[in-house]
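Re: [ENG-882] Designed sequences occasionally contain unexpected residues at chain ends

Forwarding the minimal case from QA. Structure tokens:
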């Protein structure tokens, strides 16, 4: 069985967020323990597993995502990576609909090589910062929002882009601050640089200290910054060491996330699933 590593939300290798992708030959998933072991072996922030569904249903493919330690409900970059593999291998063209834990997710391929993900918009609820958040994060929040059940993060607004880039969190302490992770964000220092806001994502609770580019986080970042800027179409930079750009388009209860992807490794999974 082919296994691929795809860098998502980037147009060049060794940037963006790498995801493992396995397209299964069967019409069902193996047991979750087997999928988890493969994801742990791949040891990337997420590995995606997909299998085709019978014609005529609401979705074409079933899709699941695993970190090295757990299954997650929603993952943007591994969905983008899977859609990229389907397109570049000729398995699917145009629009693909994935059946997932977060409902049916639609991806659309464009002629310039980019792909758009149609994801549920995360609901934002202002909350009081949990005790110890500022100390664990290493910066004082301007505001804190809960992002609902699908995402499960705290969205933390900081003073400026420099504050986001300078973060050096205490990851063990950060585990106690949210259900999944913490998204730190601020407005871009200079929009002329090609992005409107900056973010970083920390998810030690699910085995990922810092995620390079988090698509699902942008379903919360999009409504947050669209309300601030008064625009539905924005570009976010996730300022990790690898970095990546996510174009966001707020469409009410849905958020469109657009980016590119590059396959960097293709190999063979020798262990049976």
């Amino acid at each position: 069985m082919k296994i691929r590593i795809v860098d998502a939300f980037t147009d060049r290798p060794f940037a963006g967020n790498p995801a493992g992708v396995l397209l299964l030959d069967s019409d069902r998933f193996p047991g979750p323990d087997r999928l988890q072991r493969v994801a742990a072996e791949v040891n990337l922030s997420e590995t995606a597993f997909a299998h085709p569904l019978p014609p005529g249903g609401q979705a074409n493919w079933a899709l699941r995502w695993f970190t090295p330690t757990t299954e997650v409900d929603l993952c943007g970059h591994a969905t983008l990576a899977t859609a990229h593999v389907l397109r570049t291998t000729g398995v699917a063209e145009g629009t693909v609909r994935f059946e997932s834990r977060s409902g049916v997710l639609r991806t659309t391929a464009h002629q310039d090589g980019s792909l758009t993900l149609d994801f549920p918009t995360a609901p934002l609820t202002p909350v009081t910062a949990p005790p110890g958040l500022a100390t664990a994060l290493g910066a004082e929040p301007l505001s804190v929002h809960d992002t609902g059940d699908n995402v499960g993060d705290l969205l933390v607004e900081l003073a400026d882009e420099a504050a986001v880039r300078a973060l050096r969190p205490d990851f063990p302490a950060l585990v106690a601050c949210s259900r999944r992770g913490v998204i730190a964000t601020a407005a871009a220092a200079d929009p002329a640089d090609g992005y409107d806001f900056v973010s970083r994502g920390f998810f030690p609770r699910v085995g990922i200290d810092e995620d390079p580019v988090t698509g699902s986080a942008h379903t919360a970042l999009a409504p947050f910054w669209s309300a601030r800027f008064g625009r539905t179409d924005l570009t976010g930079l996730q300022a990790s060491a690898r970095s990546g750009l996510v174009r966001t388009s707020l469409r009410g209860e849905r958020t469109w996330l657009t980016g590119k992807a590059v396959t960097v490794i293709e190999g063979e999974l020798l262990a049976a699933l």
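QA comment: On inspection the terminal residues look reasonable. Helices lie at 32-42, 76-88, 133-137, 148-151, 161-165, 171-174, 218-229. Proposing we downgrade this to a documentation issue.
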